Amino acid sequence: MAHHQGVTCSFGASAGFLKSSCLLAATLTFDFQQSTTSLAAAVISIMTTHTEDSTKKETPSWALGVPTKLIRKVNIIPEAPDHLPVHTLTFAFPDVNHENFTGPAVHHSHVRLDMGDVVKMVIPGYKPKSYSISDLRENEFDVTFKVYPNGRASGFLDRLQVGDHIMSFGKHASRTRNPGAYVGIIVFGVGITEGYPVAKAELAKGTAKVKLLWASRTRADTFWREELQQLQEAYPDNFEMVYLYSRETVEGCLHGRVSPELLKQVFDPPLPQEARFLSVGTKPMMKDVDGMLGLIGYPMPQHHLLPKH
Ligand SMILES: Cc1cc2nc3c(=O)[nH]c(=O)nc-3n(C[C@H](O)[C@H](O)[C@H](O)COP(=O)(O)OP(=O)(O)OC[C@H]3O[C@@H](n4cnc5c(N)ncnc54)[C@H](O)[C@@H]3O)c2cc1C
């Protein structure tokens, strides 16, 4: 899923460097004998060596990431014939100072969930792939992901075992916040991993009204329903959750697909000029939603909650 434009990094690595970085990543993933600290020190030293040896167009050293240890793995949607599995992986913050990250890479503790920042998971032999951080605690962070059939990145994450390391780094999404009293969030499927943290953050910031529309195929494709219910209870006047299912009719939920009419029905801000929107899904889905919002009186980018800068 491509939640947002332009955050996926493209790699122009030379064969030689790619090979050594894969080897390094593989070693770091499977050698559990060493401590994270010594692994991190090794990576930083290799990053430095690489910077000295490489030619301009090669993989930037900042994109190698640092060893990041998986400490918990929880299945939240089991695999079934009619839906794909979803897991939450909890990683410990890498034991590396923020100052050791260069370029656009940042330490995981610097990722801003309210701004839609991401963590880049460096998939060995492939490339860094973006994942929203679904929760950030004092010394650890969560990534919640759907496992796609033959998915290179999601398949690799799926095969990680507790105690394994993966190379990763944080990255700002280069967005600004365009405040408004009314925030509408439209998420498709696993896009809730960004939509829910942003909704929580907006409520914590005192946004008068936050409405979250979650479009899924069926109820079984959704998760965190209890957490979302708790958020509703914590902010009875400020938060509203709307479930929309395209392949199932469920009492109290909408049925159908996202359309201009549906968006008009769900989002009815008292002061339209105060309305801000965020959509999370594949690039075409987000583009479609922008078009639909434009049709019903919310032209973009004026009404974006988190426009790119
Ligand atoms: C900013 C950003 C944040 C993201 N956050 C998350 C997140 O929090 N959780 C998460 O699970 N993913 C997230 N993604 C998507 C993630 O980066 C990968 O694209 C996703 O895991 C699929 O990669 P893959 O290599 O496993 O699949 P690929 O090898 O790219 O594809 C494997 C198969 O799955 C299909 N497929 C891939 N993506 C989708 C899709 N979205 N819908 C339907 N079919 C698909 C492909 O068509 C192909 O057939 C995010 C993407 C971006 C850009």
UniProtKB/TrEMBL annotation:
Keyword Flavoprotein: yes
Domain FAD-binding FR-type residue range list: 63-178
Keywords: FAD, Flavoprotein, Oxidoreductase
Binding residues annotated for FAD, in chain numbering: Y126, K146, S154, T193
GO molecular function annotation: oxidoreductase activity
Cross-referenced InterPro entries: CBR-like (IPR001834), FAD-bd_FR_type (IPR017927), OxRdtase_FAD/NAD-bd (IPR001433)
Cofactor: FAD
Designated name of the protein: Phenylacetic acid degradation protein
Native source organism of the sequence: Nitzschia inconspicua
